[in-house]
Amino acid sequence: MSDLAEPQNRAPPRHPKLLKRSLQVVAGIIGLIFLCWLILYVTKGRFLKSTFERYVSSATERQVRVAGDFQLYFNPINIKFLAEGLTISNPEWASMDHFVSAGLIDTSIPTFPLIFGKRRANWLNLINGRFDLEWDETGHRNTWTFGQATGEPFEMPLIRRAYVAGTQVRFRDPRMQLSTDIKIDTVRSTNTRIDNDIRFAGDGTMRQKPFTLSGSLKSPNETVGGGRNRLVLNARSGGTFMDVSGTLPGATELEGSDLHIAVRGPNMADLFDFLGVAVPDSRTYRMTSALTKVGEEWRFTGLKGMVGESDLSGSLTVAPIKPRLLLTANLRSDTLDIVDAGPWIGYDPNRLEKQGNSGTIRQVGGVPRLLPDAKLRVDSLRTFDARLKYRIRRVRAESLPVSNIDLTLNLDNSLLSLAPLTFDMARGHVTSEIALNARARPVQTTYDIRLSPTPMGVLLAGFGVEESGTSGTMTARIQLKGEGDTLHDSLATSDGRIAVILPRGTLWTRNVQLSELDIGTFVQKMFEGELKEPVQINCGLIAFTVRNGVAAADPILIDTRKNVILGRGGFSFRNESLDMAMRADSKKFSLFAGQSPVGVTGFFAQPKIDPISGELLARAGGSLGLGIAAAPVAAVLAFVDVGDAKSAACGPVLSGASAVAQRTTKGEPRDDVGKGTTAKAESGKSTKGERQQQRKKFLGIF
What we know:
Elements: H1 2-5, H2 16-43, H3 49-60, E1 64-66, E2 70-74, E3 79-89, E4 98-109, H4 111-115, E5 120-121, E6 123-134, E7 158-159, E8 162-165, E9 167-173, E10 178-184, E11 189-190, E12 193-194, E13 198-206, E14 209-218, E15 229-237, E16 240-248, E17 258-265, H5 268-272, E18 285-294, E19 297-307, E20 310-319, E21 325-337, H6 338-341, H7 349-355, E22 362-364, E23 367-369, H8 378-381, E24 384-396, E25 402-412, E26 415-425, E27 428-437, E28 444-455, H9 456-462, E29 473-483, H10 487-492, E30 495-502, E31 505-508, H11 509-516, H12 519-528, E32 534-547, E33 550-560, E34 563-572, E35 577-586, E36 598-603, E37 607-610, H13 614-629, H14 632-637, H15 650-654, H16 679-683, H17 688-698
Parallel strand pairs: 5-7, 6-8, 6-9, 21-24
Antiparallel strand pairs: 1-3, 2-3, 3-4, 4-6, 9-10, 10-13, 11-12, 13-14, 14-15, 15-16, 16-17, 17-18, 18-19, 19-20, 20-21, 22-23, 24-25, 25-26, 26-27, 27-28, 28-29, 29-30, 30-32, 31-32, 32-33, 33-34, 34-35, 35-36, 36-37
């Protein structure tokens, strides 16, 4: 019985041969790996020299040669690479024969990070190296992107420790007009400590402007493994100086850097030229900022400094987002000096620096010009996009009550918009939308500027006039569209309309009576001491139609309790000349009413106001003669106004309607506005001779 039960308790048969064979295979693989490692380690991989040249040449589509000793092996798990007389050729379009040539490259590369695509080196010995970093004319290819791929931005590999001697780096970018050569001094290190500074120096040109740079990487007391390296960099181009200091995570690692930058110079536009970015000119500036690199972004935070006499602070981010560079900024100024804003719209910063406000005026053919004619750098606008918010608390300016400026700027593929651009002016609010289309040539610009109801008393006070007794308000709008690469040219070709509306209100007599030209009443009140008696304005409209840069009154019509003020003529953005005449018609009998026109002539930069016109002088001369030869009453008769002025219907006035829509209070079309403008001539209803006569008579600006 016991013999029969024994087989039932026996364990199932095993397969020791299968397990043994598996272990043998694993051991064989390990042995082969070890054997390969041992062969490579013993031979230093020198026998792979031809294979390396052939394989890398095929992969990079460049000719790769090693003239001297060659080593490639695992030491023990990191890759050890050594090459004497290494050369890597450049593509045919490049200006130099070789992308890399080195007397000696000796480096240790961690294996596992390399497998995952990370370019790192534990240490590098580099002797007599030459590196040619160059873009082609189109900006699509470069010497460091191998094969037929589109050129990628240069990314410096992370190198923890180095010994470098007699090495030079050459960089060329035709699009940025940048060329530079940098020499690197010997760097010595022992164990995990860098004994000497990494010193470098170089020079070059940027947009045909020479510059120099020098600096060092100071880390004698920092360990290589994770230690931070102190960087000092100084650069100069003409009058522009830049100083950079701070720490880097590694000798060639910019990600997560903690740097401080200080720049100063005569014009901030020169600084941004190094980025291929076109910004408006500026006066002398000095700025400081923290600087770090996060991913692909360069971040300037804690910006603080002065531009001219104005403070500036905020942040700026520069990101190489394809296909264009992207600048994102958030800036603030507590006080902006009005002279410092001049270069933004094209005024010469050097003239402003030397002459202040008077630097905005220049002579062109013996004629004073005010509008700037600096050209917009259209080509540079194609290289970057921008997002900017800029807030200004106060503007320092004589007779210009402006504050709380809020500007939003967007540049998208050469389409520049300032929308909105808002600011407060004398308790009123201005809203602007300005767009520049630089995709077209010449540049197309549209202006839409609106002034909300603004107390005239406060506005006049801002210009140095006492506001007491003034309760009227004003509203305005400007809509223009023109072409040109300068502010002057865009306005000189513009079409559109300009309108200033005066609703019902009162104005201080001293301010109004000269405008109404009722000179006799003004003098009479002056001697009676009644200078602050308010004068009632029913409604008013000062409007111009602009065609091809010429603005014609359409209409100028101000209805007051006593008078109706009419204006004719206009001005020109082309040559900045003025040619207008103002006349006041009394609604009632008045012994002292200046019925003769008052001329407004001259130029934007030098206007002339003649309240005693030639016609008025003749009448005054006649009255003087009568006063001598006859009774004193005769001297007064020359100024008698029969008082037949037609009161205005305020509806069309307050709506800003053109001259043809204006009506009297009886609903009849006005026949005293619109004459002397270009409206009729440009309607096509008049002959060429009539148009020429109208222009000659009313707009001597053609």
